[in-house]
Amino acid sequence: MKKKENELEKTQPTKPTVRKIFGTQQISEDDALSLVGGIVEKGFSDNSQFRSTGPSYAPRPTVLPFPVARHRSHGPHWSAKVGGSNGIDDEDEEEEQDFTGMNMAATFANPVQRKEKKGLDFSWLRETVNNNGGSVPHEKKRQGYLIGSNEWKGGKEANYKNSDGSGRWILTQDDAPLTRADFDAKEKDVTMEDKVSIIPEEVKEKRQDVLAMAIDDGQSNFKHSAAENFVQTKERPRSGIIEDREGIKGNIEPQLLNRPIKDIDVDMEMQCRPTTHFDSSFGYDKLVDKQAATSLESQIDLENRARLEKMSSDEIAEAQSEIMTKMSPKLINALRKRGQDKLKKQKISVSDMGSNGSSGTEQKEKNLINEPAMSGASSSSHDVQKAASADSLIDKDNKVVPNLSSKGSSLWDSWSKRVEHVRDLRFSLDGDVFKPDFAQILDAGTKQVHSGYSADNVSERDFLRTEGDPGAAGYTVKEAVALTRSVVPGQRALALHLIASILDKANCSIYQHQVGCNMKFAESDESIDWEAIWAFVLGPEPELALSLRISLDDNHNSVVLACAKAIQSVLSCDINESFFNISEKIPTYSQDLFTAPVFRSKPDIDSGFLRGGFWKYNTKPSNILRFDEDTIDDKSDGEHTIQDDIVVAGQDIAAGLVRMGILPRICYLLETSPSPPLEECLISILIAIARHSPTCAAAIINCDRLVQTVANRFAANEQIEIYPCKIKSVKLLKVLARVEKKNCIMLIKNGIFHKVTWHLYRYPFSLDQWVKSGRDVCKLSSALLVEQLRFCKVCIQFGYGISQFPDLFPSLSIWLNVPTFPKLIENNVIIEFAAITKEAYLLLDALASRLPNFYLQMHQGMEVNAEDTEVWAWSQVGPIIDLAIEWTKVKSIPYISGFLDWDEAGGYFILQDSEVNCLLWIISSVMHMLSNVLKAATPDDVKSLYNGHVPWLPEFVPKIGLEIIRNGFMSFSGVNGMASDDNTAGSGSFLGYLCHLRQKSGHETSISSTCCLHGLVQVVASVDKLIHLAKHEFQNASAEYQNFTRDDKILAEGIFHSSLVELGALLSSFMKLISNGWQCIQSIEMFGRGGPSPGVGVGWGSPGGGYWSTTTLLAQQDARLVMYLLENTQNAFAKDLLTDEEVCFTMQRINSAVKACMIAGPRDGAVVDKLLDILLQVPVLKHLDFGIRRFLSHREGFRPFGWKYEEEEYLLFANVLSTHFKNRWLSVKNKLKTTGNHKHVNCKRHKKGSLPLETIHEDTDRPLTVGQGPTSLIMEWAHQRLHLPIHWFLSAISTIQYEKNIDIPVDFVEIARGGLFFLLGIEAMSTFVAVEFQSPVNNIPIVWKLHALSVTLLGGMGVLEEEKSRDVYETLQDVYGKVLEKFNMESLYFQSEIHESYSTFIENLVEQFAAVSYGDVVFARQVAIYLHRRVEAPVRLATWNALSNARVLELFPPLEKCIAKGDGYLEPVEDDERILEAYVKSWVSGALDRAATRRSATFTLVLHHLSSFLFENVCDSTRTLRNKLARSLLRDCPRKEQRQNMLMKLIQYKKSIPCAEPISDVASSLQICLGKRFQLLKESCEGN
Amino acid sequence: MQITKRVSYERDTKIINAASFTIEREDHTIGNIVRMQLHRDENVLFAGYKLPHPLKYKIIIRIHTTSQSSPMQAYNQAINDLDKELDHLKNAFEAELARHSGSQSRQY
Hey, CA dihedral for A38, A43, A45, A47, is it positive or negative? Predict the structure, then answer.
């Protein structure tokens, strides 16, 4: 409808006014005057007069920019541009025209002077005018273009020129015929509207007249009713100002396209100013002259859209901001409101735009997507990035374009886009992001453009913002960083505070995310993308590390303090500490982890491209220490520049800071007795650096006087008073001691250890005294004591200071006792007390693991250990066990006994969660200590004992057991049907309670309850074992046995045995838990990195902390427990034949073992080792075999094997596989072994324990082995491989060669055979399990499985030569074929999923196939899978070419015998030209000849695809190719009889009929069809 | 004189009419041409060769034939045919060369 209206309007005869308008300023001065005057009034006079008069004043656009800035940034360009910078992208003719145009225009370029009559300040405008020649050519060109492409310009265009003050319109008309042709040819993206609106020029002129008139009217109106405008603004129709604005952008754009980017800004400035000015008034006109307005509106709208389409995004952004700068704030607000309203409405009322409008928006969207690429051609990559970010911002704003970032782009792309967004975010001083509202978005796109400050309010400008956009609120990251180098100390401090608060906020927010919820972020724009912010701030671009390092050298204390705080935030000290705090509470972890960011090494072909390579440091350790002796020797010092430092800092910010010499500076600062907060900060920083990596820790140790200074400052104020920084000092020393045994010895020898732990040896005071000292003091002293105990523990773990235990014991004993709880609760110090108690028991735990073996000692007497490490004496253990047993009497301890009633009336809520938690930690550490003691009491070697029994049992063993039974840790409900008369705990057992807590509570409580459970199960198992060993004594007295109480009976029968049901339930509930856990952990790793950002801690910036989260810790604890439970309930595997349920159960166990393997982190090497032992034992393999047989006999399409595995084969598989997996995944990279240079810390590889690696003989994981303690208690991520990737068990079949440094001869064929069997077993078993217990094997993409099968063959034919493994292999192929058929939607992305150079791999495989296979069918099937239609085209092409070149196309079985159904190879019909050409090429070259005679699948493929391409779906687009192919086929034909037959087959081919069969019962339709085909062939040969 | 045999023959135990020939001190030059010649033989089901290792100067040719022939027979046949073909090529070349140089000498 609107269009029709438009047409009517267009044809209105308004010719007489034409001249007037075009030549406004020259021909009719009155018109021009009123026009210009109008503009001027709005822009200047009103402005200057009423700016400060308050709200009654109508909002209006301003054309007055901030004068000084304008001059500064734009002046120089003006003159230069006139010369020849335009038209670089243009044809030469164009340029010439421009020149002439410019010259001509210059003659008209003076009338603006008239404006001076108004007595206004036109100085800026005069400059414009003087330089008018510069803009003219572009103007003209644009007009030429517009006319040329028959675009309807609208009156705006004309007026725009008029207001520019020159009669250029005439010129344009002159030029039009010339330029028109040019543009028609050039502009390929002429839009719909352009084509539609081809209108004779007169009509256009008329329209312009209408418009102009309307404008004149409007402006005269406007003059008188300034106040009205505001109202009108609001009332205007939808397509009001916003569209106008877009229109302006549109107007500006075409010439921009034709010009070098650097000029754009200037031009925009010049042209936008008048345009804007006009435009805003234009909106009002439409209201005044209604009839004209409605038509105009739609026309302009139409045109605007057309224009907008052609604009690149940053041009749009620039134009937008330009407009923003030109308008008064009030108007902007009004517009913004309108815009937001409009956004809301837009979805509903799309039709409102008119038919053209909507299509226009669509096209606009497309353009927005395309634009960055276009501009990328002519501008730097930086511009592209900017464009991209501006792009999506606008998209978000308009809510029209959905997800630019996610569509078709890889994970990395979307991530980098997210990070790029941060560039434009602005932060308030407390670290919040200013919500990107309208103004924000517009501002964001442009930084150079100046905001709405005019001469009047320029004094309000924020002079703090010396960089970037001074007008916008808040600071961008880069501005803030730049501000840290301000000359004003206050500004520096402010900027540092800002940075610190941004980082803190980011830290907290990241940590609150859910672990593993990756990258789902980009779409939701409500929340702020803190991960990206974190990554951007730490990333190389802002050069934050450098600024921080410089600021630390500041001579203003406030700046230094602020800087220290910022560094503290950068290193995320607090959150790291809280993680390590929890981690240290876990008794099973004797080791910490280094926090340095790492990434995985790239997969290579030797490992079959499997993921999960060794971790590497982001920064080479040798890069951290700049002033290393070695490097000084190697290189001249002059080579180091600050750029190197920045590069290092970009890789790893902590390393960068250390490299920049932060440590000497901190040392100096500490020496100058800093204020307590600064000291605390500095020590926190030191802790974070010490935790970073061995190299950094060594740097701290080696830094002159640093450690000594810390110790001295600790001792300096020797009062009882405790400061927080004292606690941190102890912590720092503890961390340093943990890093290396050497450090620990050093700290003990120079007395620092004693200096900082003297509190522990203080005269024992009573608990009452402690409680009375007040809560705050208690808190501090508790924290200090905990750290000191931990420090002690470290020494003990290294084997030192054990002899001092008797001195320590008296003061410890008050903590070890069960306290009187009411007093503690009364004073609210129960948590503090519990913390100390727990730590004390952990200390004892460490001591207990230093116990010599009880029986060993008995036999051999007190043999003193010759080494410098000490062992604990059993004589001291007695009282401690008594104390510990007190804690196990949970029923007699109030507040703990409350737990046991948990299921009744929710009674367990009597305590706070945190209190429950801390009590649980105590119990957990007590349990672990007991279990360690029991372990030491268990004889190592049962066989050497007399009779296989221990001669006597230590008294405490049954005591512990009895306490556990009596105190309702387990319910023993199933024991001999005994009446549970004395079982006061009812149905609730402590175990059940813990299980409940694990599932219901927060992370820390869950962890503590899991630890408790673990400890409990361990103690129970140990007690059982010992009692079992000592059982013969009971057997002697079987008469007494009858008289035993229930408790004794349970003890005698074995607690474990008696509570199997309960433990089974426990196991299955934890199996469920880890199946959630492993997926969560597997999803953390992305981009082949542990985390996306180079910082320390918080999971290196991954959401929720990634690997550094309590979620991960919890999952790992669960995995540990599962491992332990599996280990102790292995007898379930003993049976041979299974029912369905049992199969299911076995599968669950196998599954959870596999899952647990994937959860295990770097510290859990021993866990994985155990799990592999559990998984790969003969009974389990037998079960797998049983599963395979059942699977084969029950599934259709499979036939059972005609053979059986022998017992020896199981054994062989078990051995071979477990050695392989352990070698493959648990080995430690040891490349520096040969250097033997131990000066260097990074040469010291931490030797992880229980590795089957032949070269490392030590078993050092647990400090159990007396004598040779570990050299470090902190694990490195680097040089090892855990966490395992999801497809870890494929490694057995897809490993061709190990790393060079493992020189054990390995029989890969054996491994592959074992691996194939294992894989088939798991696959088969997974079909028996319910969906909720989904096996991890189902989560591995089918691509990986197929790939792994291929890799096996690349290594050699050994697998296929052996009959059994050949059958297994073939069965696996069939299984995967079925999977392929089932999920027939997903593609097989070998190239993008597995390796980018997959084609090379294919070539090798085909070569192998061609050289040694003897045309083996199974091998051929495997190769044929790469010709499957769902494989990516490049891979398919590479496969075909390789096969064709090797002349092995005939070796394939018929299509029916390939993997998966034949249809998958044939449908959909091939459309890739290169592949079709390759088909024809092989045809012509004769490579297919034998394939045709042998009915090879390849020939069927060629027949099908070629005939479909040549004879069906005939359409024009493919004509040339079709002709070409047909011609080469025909030309080739006469030469050979064979080819003629093939061609006949091709012509007669029909898919339903197998090609080889003669077409005997041909239907007549087929004859017709054949006729047609001949016809087509004839056509395609064009009569030749 | 080289004592070691240039070619050794080894029958494949698993497949009938299949064997591998190890040819010492030869590489792709011979391997490829022999393989392609073998491909022309109707009775040859499979013919392929490989260099076991880039630094080992030998090739292994694997041949699998139908029951009408045997690997040894096919191999000999291929070698003979190649010999003939190359002889023919050589003769033709020399004849042409003689003719050409003759005409050239006539010119000058």
Answer: positive
Cβ-based contacts under 8 A for chains A and B: 32
Residue of B nearest to A1411 (CA): B48
Q: Which of A982, A979, A957, A955 is nearest to A967 (CA)?
A: A982
Tokens of residue A1519, six digits: 């004509």
Do A1410 and B48 make contact, defined as CB atoms within 8 angstroms?
yes
Residue A741 tokens, joined: 């045994």
The better pLDDT of the pair A1255, A1087 is held by A1087
Structure token digits, residue A290: 């209604």
| CA distances for A1171 relative to A495, A726, A1153, angstroms | 52, 42, 6
Q: CA Rg, chain A, in Å?
A: 41
A1421 contact partners, CB below 8 Å, separation of at least 6: A1370, A1373, A1453, A1457, A1458, A1459
Contacts 24+ apart (CB under 8 A), A837-841: A837/A922, A838/A585, A838/A918, A838/A921, A838/A922, A838/A924, A838/A925, A839/A785, A839/A786, A839/A789, A839/A790, A839/A793, A839/A925, A840/A789, A840/A812, A840/A815, A840/A816, A841/A816, A841/A884, A841/A887, A841/A922, A841/A925, A841/A926, A841/A929
Distances (CA, A) of A429 to A399, A474, A560, A570, A572: 30, 7, 18, 17, 19
What's the rounded Cα separation, in Å, for the pair A1106 and A1091? 7
Q: Which residues of B touch A1447 (CB under 8 A)?
A: 35-36, 39
Question: What length does chain B have?
Answer: 108
Q: Which two tokens stand for residue B44?
A: 């040859």
Cα distance from A1408 to chain B (closest Cα, Å)? 8
Residues in a beta bridge with A598: A617
The residue of B10, B14, B34, B63 whose CB has the most chain A CBs within 10 angstroms, and thus the best one to mutate to test that interface, is B14
* CA–CA distance, A726 with A719 (Å, rounded to integer): 11
The alpha helices in A1207-1259, defined as continuous H runs, are: 1207-1226
Rounded distance between C-alpha atoms, residue A1053 and residue A1048, angstroms: 9
What is the SS3 string spanning A970-1029? CCCCCCCCCCCCCCCCCCCCHHHHHHHHHHHCCHHHHHHHHHHHHHHHHHHHHHHHHHHH
Residue of chain A minimizing CA distance to B13: A1361
Q: Which pair of tokens denotes residue A42?
A: 């709005």
- A1522 contact partners, CB below 8 Å, separation of at least 6: A1509, A1510, A1514, A1580
**Phi, psi (rounded to 5 degrees) for A1299:** -60, 155
pLDDT single digits (tens) A557-605: 999 999 999 999 888 888 888 888 888 888 888 788 888 888 888 887 7
Chain B environment of A1411 (Cβ under 8 Å)? 48-50, 60, 62
Q: How many CA atoms lie within 13 A of A1580 on its CB side?
A: 26
| Contact list, B15 vs chain A (CB under 8 Å) | 1414
Nearest-by-CA chain A residue for B46: A1414
**Cα separation values, A1080 from A73, A930, A996, A1286, A1403, Å:** 52, 33, 21, 12, 37
What tokens appear for A722 in the block? 């405790």
Whether residue B50 and residue A1411 make contact (CB cut-off 8 A), yes or no, is: yes
- Of B12, B18, B46, which has the smallest distance from its Cβ to A1451's Cβ? B46
| Longest distance between any two alpha carbons in chain B, whole Å | 67
User: CA of A1488 to nearest chain B CA: how many angstroms apart?
Assistant: 12
Say what the ipTM of the complex is: 0.91
Establish if A1137 touches chain B: CB-CB under 8 angstroms: no
Confirm if A995 and A1013 have CB atoms less than 8 A apart.
Answer: yes
- The string of pLDDT tens digits covering residues A729-764 is 999 999 999 888 888 888 888 888 888 888 887 766
SS3 A150: coil
Torsions phi, psi for A915 (to 5 deg): -75, -40
Please tell me the predicted confidence (pLDDT) of residue A3.
Answer: 44
39-58 in B: which are within 8 Å (CB) of A?
Answer: 39, 45-46, 48-50
